[in-house]
Amino acid sequence: MKKIFLLLFIASLSFAQQEQQQKSLTELQCQIAGMQSAEYKVLNFETDTQKIKSKKNPGLAILFSMLLPGMGELYAGDYSGGKYFTIADGVLWGVFAGFQSYGSWKEDNYKTFAQSKAGVTLDGKEDDYFANVGIYMSVDEYNKEQELNREFTSAYYKSSYYWKWQSESDRKEYRNMWSSSENAYTNVRFVVGALVLNRLLSAINAVRLVSAYNKNLESDSQLSYYFSYHPATSLPSSINLNLIKPF
After folding, report:
1. What is d(CA 224, CA 245) in angstroms, rounded to the nearest whole number?
2. Residue boundaries of the structural domains of the chain
């Protein structure tokens, strides 16, 4: 009887051990199956530092250069050459103010001189009238020449466009003052042209710098990111992040 119980006990232990092993094997198989059936996510994407460091806009560079030469270059990130456009602009504005003030001063002088020496009335007079005052001794002399040339519509009314110089020297002095004023205003127009040209050159240079900046951004700053995620039911999940920079 004892032998029978001993055999039954040994058989039960063997059965329990086999069952435990089978259970462990089954759980392991389920885990492996779960890992195989689990979603294996791989996220691959490419980006570049342009998304972090934006490209420059050529239109803005042109706008800044037109407002103040050199600012387009500053926007493009290279003010080494742009500063000369800014300096040139400041100098040109100074010259502009100087010629403008000198021309206005001479204009006031010749008009006052004509009023006192030739009896000119200043109100409502055109620029051509003041030019003719310095060429002819009187309104009568001017009108006579227009009649001889059969240009009757160019003649002046004596009542409103009268003048008569007291001497030839007065007329010449007036003519010199008028010429000085006109030369100053002509120089002002040249300075305005130089201001416009300086802005155009600055804008062209700024666009060139912006183009070079954007090109370098594309070629030198591109990075590729590869991100992968591996979930697991029993083992720790793993995350891989790879950075690749092309050369």
Report:
1. 6
2. 36-53+221-247, 58-220
